[in-house]
Amino acid sequence: MSTQEQNKNVVVDYYETAFGGDPQKAVDDHFGPVYVQHNPDAQDGPEAFIGFVTWLRAEYPNLRLDIKRIIAEGDMVVTHSHLDLDPGNPENPGRALADYFRLENGKVVEHWDVIQDVPTKAANDNGMF
């Protein structure tokens, strides 16, 4: 398996484990010695990530993360995901996420994201995903 395919597998397991309810395991298994966060609303480091996911799951206990696309190039992995905070609620269709992860030696060390609310109405019929 290529390094890029391995990195994709790491990111998928990390992301699904964290948002599936075990952010500590995700960090233990997949974080490198540092974790640099580029989201201006989040702090660096594994403790901040664990705290955020724990808070989010407490606010939205039924949330679901569905990775729609994953691309890898060099040491970067990009995911396009649907974060459905309240599944089945048409008034809250969730968020579209584009996450960029940089890996070193098979471990997540840096993260950027772009987050957009999924609209309840759109100007086209193409969908967000």
TrEMBL record:
<dbReference type="InterPro" id="IPR032710">
    <property type="entry name" value="NTF2-like_dom_sf"/>
</dbReference>
<dbReference type="Pfam" id="PF07366">
    <property type="entry name" value="SnoaL"/>
</dbReference>
<protein>
    <submittedName>
        <fullName>Ester cyclase</fullName>
    </submittedName>
</protein>
<dbReference type="InterPro" id="IPR009959">
    <property type="entry name" value="Cyclase_SnoaL-like"/>
</dbReference>
